[in-house]
Amino acid sequence: MSNVVFSAKKRTDFGSARSARLRKAGRVPGVIYGKGESIPIDLDGRELSGHLRNISESTIVQVDIEGASHDAFVKSTQRNIQDGSIIHVDFYEIEMGKLLRARVSVHITGNPIGVREGGVLETPLHDIEVECLPKDLPPRITVDISGLGVNQSIHVRDIVLGDGVKLISAEDQVVALVKFAKAEAAAAETAGEAVSGADAKSGEKS
């Protein structure tokens, strides 16, 4: 589990004017949802930006609100469309002893055999949904595709998950596949048609 800790303060003043003053002071307004009533907070903008670069949607972080610690996910951020700065953040609090569902990013490693033979790699799936206790939640799922040949694929059902982690995503979804390049596929199709035509002519003569 991640050791990322966000230091926050409770917000007692609300409204767009108050939020604008917070941002001008280098702080970012936010909310923690999940257990009981939502908790309005604000955080140091620089610290927030630094931490967000090192975590994913499935990373469990700690939000320290004036000495009280909350385990949570960063669920969403809103950014200024002009400069990309964070203007609001939402956290979702979790219970450590309670099952949760989360989407975990898929990390592809290796250079497939099929690509070295001229094939084209496609990776249509970028995350999968799992169910587990927070302590068992993997930060990411690594899939080695080194042995993948041309016209071969890896599906969600082929992924080995850790103990206590249950797959929720559909098992038949494709994680990675290698197929012929378009030019080679067209050439193979043309060659096939030529062979079929030759066989047909041979049949007519006989």
**Gyration radius, in Å:** 25 Å
Structure summary, number of beta strands: 13
Indicate the multimeric state.
single chain
- Biggest sheet: strand arrangement: 1-3-2-6-5-4
**Range of helix content:** 10-25%
Low-confidence stretches: none
Distance between the termini: 73 Å
Q: What would you call the structural class?
A: alpha+beta
How many strands, which pairing sense, and closed or not: the largest β-sheet? 6 strands, mixed, barrel
Topology as a string of helices (H) and strands (E): EHEEHEEEEHEEEEEEH
Mean pLDDT: 86
- What coarse outline follows from CA principal-axis ratios? elongated
Number of distinct helices: 4
Strand content: 35-45%
SSE topology:
Layout: E1 5-10, H1 16-24, E2 27-33, E3 39-44, H2 45-52, E4 61-65, E5 68-79, E6 86-93, E7 100-109, H3 113-116, E8 119-122, E9 127-132, E10 141-144, E11 152-155, E12 166-167, E13 174-180, H4 182-205
Parallel strand pairs: 1-4, 2-6, 7-10
Antiparallel strand pairs: 1-3, 2-3, 4-5, 5-6, 7-9, 8-13, 9-12, 11-13
Give short descriptive properties of this protein:
six-stranded mixed beta barrel; 4 helices; 22% helix; alpha+beta; four-stranded mixed β-sheet; elongated; single chain; 206 residues
What does this structure look like?
By secondary structure, the protein is an alpha+beta fold. Helix content is 22%, strand content 39%. It has four helices and 13 strands. The strands form three sheets. Strands 1-3-2-6-5-4 form a six-stranded mixed barrel. A four-stranded mixed beta sheet has the order 10-7-9-12, with no helix packed on it. Strand 2 and strand 3 form a beta hairpin. The longest helix has 24 residues. The mean pLDDT is 86.
